[in-house]
Amino acid sequence: MSVTETRKLSRIQKERRKEILAAALDVFSRDGFRGASINTIAKEAEMSTPRLLYHFSGKEELYHELLKSVLLLWLGPLNQIDASGQPVEEILDYIRRKLRMSQHHPRESRLFASAVLLGAQRAHAEVFDSFRVIFDDKISLLSQWMDDGKLARQDPHHLIYSIWATTQHYADFEVQIVELSPEKMDSLFTDAEAYLVPMYRKLLTPDT
């Protein structure tokens, strides 16, 4: 086999792996790890199960590959909180980024939620070790801003948890929103930002 043919095969393999991972993301985000099967993922990817298993050893490997990529996506908005920025605006921008993630990456959000609820023990260190480093760093930053009087005094852990709860809800419980508020779907994220940003601004702005 020539070098050109080898490179072409490598590109084809990469494309196949991307197709399989996209299908696996659909299945895992919908069914969770326990509910997913390698046969379902193969069907979603429009290929035979043996052909899928040529590229990945099984659903465990697929799950871990997806978790690694989702973790990078998940940590991005938190990591972008800038210690040199204006504290209230930095957190409000973080909320906006989390809403955009829920809007544009709902499957990834649901996969991560599923991992935390059901499957984190399968990749506990892989998921939480990197997460904890950045989380602890931002908790320390929020605490310092509060000590400096730049943010109203809050429990920084619960502040972050509440931001996750109010932004990720739109992705993780999309089915519920569609059922309860179908008339809101066209402007859902615009309306969510218009509601959440003033609420958190009032919560975070220190008394003068």
Name the descriptors.
mainly alpha, Tetracycline Repressor, domain 2, Arc Repressor Mutant, subunit A, about 210 residues, elongated, 10 helices, disordered N terminus, 2 domains
How would you explain this protein's 3D organization?
- The longest helix has 33 residues, at 3-35.
- Helices cover 79% and strands 0% of the residues.
- The relative contact order is 0.11.
- It folds into 2 domains: 1-56, Homeodomain-like (Arc Repressor Mutant, subunit A, Orthogonal Bundle); 63-204, Tetracycline Repressor, domain 2 (Orthogonal Bundle).
- It has 10 helices and no strands.
- Helix 1 crosses helix 2.
State which percent range the strand residues make up: under 5%
Determine Rg (CA atoms, Å): 20 Å
CATH class of the largest domain: Mainly Alpha
The helix-and-strand class reads mainly alpha
Kindly state the mean pLDDT as a whole number?
87
Domain count: the total is: 2
Number of helices: 10
Name of the CATH architecture of the largest domain: Orthogonal Bundle
Secondary-structure element pattern, one letter each: HHHHHHHHHH
Provide a compact summary of the structure.
The protein has 208 residues and is mainly α. Helix content is 79%, strand content 0%.
